[in-house]
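Sequence design from tokenized structure. All designs in this work follow the same two-part layout: the structure record, then the generated sequence. An example of the structure record is given first.
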């Protein structure tokens, strides 16, 4: 059904709106199943009445109609609707371009001249204006100190989580009067995003010498585990350089950098927190050992436990080998086996909540139409899907993707995706460092997500038929809300 009200705000007839409705009907009939040819339905619909622009409301069918309900619940129905609608809009422009341009010029006449202040301000930024939250002055940055200030404002105002989306950037002046950007970034989008904004702020291209993490010497593994009872992490590679957080026994670590003295590692824990820790707190793991650590059944220690004279504090992490009634065989951080009292451990659930979340996504929401703000089977957005399927698994996630990106155990990064399991929540960022999208892993690199026009499956695997280069480039982290 196509709803129109071809009358403008002055009560005059709108032949362009009638033409638009004709074109949309023809394009929809090419792709969307129908039994009887349908015409226009004249109605004072609030979305079309008194509009000076050609507009129409498209109603593809009603769920009360069994045949339509069956068709629209099938694969790619909403994609088909979207393509047909797009084709109609393109055809309208191709066939009525002169009339549409004349209407645009009448309704939106160009100003006689640009305001003087705006022209001067724009001329001052030949590469385009930087984000106002990065550089708010109407002139370019002139010194390295001003650009360092712009870096700080960018990190604090744009980046979703400054710990996980780690950026350590420095700006210096070159001998030729230009600027050089050096440092490290967690993600290519962060590396390129900060360089773009600083170049715009300076009004000239800045030499981007930032390195991507992990940045370690050859032969040094980027994976490890905490093998002492507890260890503080610092803001710089030295004792006392403002505490970041505390690592606990048995926790997995992503190793990002090693300092010049080779006594400290910059690490990221499974909570996403980043800081420098002494090397003697870390036992290195190879990739396979680390993946086993991230995917195997893990228990949390719930009370202080002594193994000889070695203390294992509460909240430490051990791997479960076998449950034997009142005792549990576990693997410790040094790789050895030990029997612990069952009462001293919180054991993982027998049924994975992530499996429930992934299965719910596939069974209940695949091909559901995308609806910004939606959380139901009538339509939902990306974080609405994540929240709904994890609610079915027993966990309440925050509403928005950028909030959800802080919940649960960090299990994947741009350079490590081996441990992805069903239900893990994937997060994607833009060049400003903001989380802009989420999806649900189906195990491995395939994921289900709500992205216009409907909930569908994509993949980070270049060999998959569902591969999306766009999402692969934007992928930043994945979290496991519940073990």
């Amino acid at each position: 059904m196509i709803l129109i009200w071809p009358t403008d705000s002055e009560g005059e007839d709108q032949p362009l709106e009638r033409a638009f409705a004709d074109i949309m009907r023809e394009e929809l009939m090419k792709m969307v199943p129908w039994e009887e040819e349908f015409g226009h339905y004249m109605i004072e619909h609030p979305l079309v009445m008194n509009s000076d622009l050609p507009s129409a409301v498209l109603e593809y069918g009603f769920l009360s109609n069994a045949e339509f309900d069956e068709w629209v619940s099938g694969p790619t129905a909403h994609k088909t609707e979207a393509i047909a609608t797009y084709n109609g809009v393109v055809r309208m422009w191709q066939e009525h371009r002169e009339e549409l341009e004349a209407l645009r010029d009448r309704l939106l006449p160009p100003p006689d001249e640009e305001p003087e202040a705006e022209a001067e301000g724009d001329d001052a930024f030949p590469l385009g204006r930087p984000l106002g939250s990065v550089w708010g002055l109407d002139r370019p940055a002139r010194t390295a100190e001003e650009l360092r200030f712009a870096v700080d404002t960018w990190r604090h105002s744009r980046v979703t989580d400054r710990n996980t989306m780690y950026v350590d950037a420095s700006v210096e002046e070159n001998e030729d009067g230009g600027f050089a950007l050096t440092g490290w970034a967690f993600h290519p989008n962060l590396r390129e995003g900060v360089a773009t904004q600083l170049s715009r702020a300076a009004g000239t291209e800045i030499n981007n010498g930032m390195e991507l993490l992990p940045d370690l010497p050859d032969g040094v593994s980027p994976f490890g585990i905490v093998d002492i009872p507890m260890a503080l992490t610092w803001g710089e590679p030295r004792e006392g350089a403002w505490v970041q957080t505390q690592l606990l026994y048995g926790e997995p670590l992503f190793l990002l950098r090693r300092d010049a003295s080779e006594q400290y590692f910059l690490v990221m824990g499974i909570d996403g927190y980043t800081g420098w820790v002494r090397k003697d707190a870390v036992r290195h793991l190879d990739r396979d050992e680390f993946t086993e650590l991230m995917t195997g059944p893990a228990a949390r220690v719930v009370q202080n436990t002594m193994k000889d004279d070695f203390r294992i504090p509460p909240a430490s992490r051990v791997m479960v080998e076998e449950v034997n009634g009142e005792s549990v065989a576990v693997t410790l951080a040094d790789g050895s086996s030990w029997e612990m009292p069952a009462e001293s451990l919180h054991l993982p659930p027998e049924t994975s909540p992530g499996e429930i979340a992934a299965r719910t996504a596939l069974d209940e929401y695949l091909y559901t139409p995308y609806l910004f703000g939606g959380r139901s089977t009538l339509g939902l957005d990306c974080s609405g899907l994540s929240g709904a399927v994890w609610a079915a698994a027993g966990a309440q996630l925050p509403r928005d993707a950028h909030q959800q990106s802080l919940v649960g155990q960090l299990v994947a990064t741009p350079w490590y995706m081996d441990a992805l399991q069903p239900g893990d929540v994937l997060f994607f960022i833009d060049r400003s460092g903001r989380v802009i999208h989420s999806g649900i892993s189906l195990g491995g690199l395939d994921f289900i997500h709500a992205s216009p026009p409907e909930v569908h499956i994509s993949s980070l695997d270049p060999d998959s038929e569902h591969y999306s280069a766009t999402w692969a480039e934007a992928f930043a982290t994945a979290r496991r809300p519940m073990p």
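Confidence is low (pLDDT under 50) at residues 114-120. We note this feature because it recurs in several other targets discussed in the main text.
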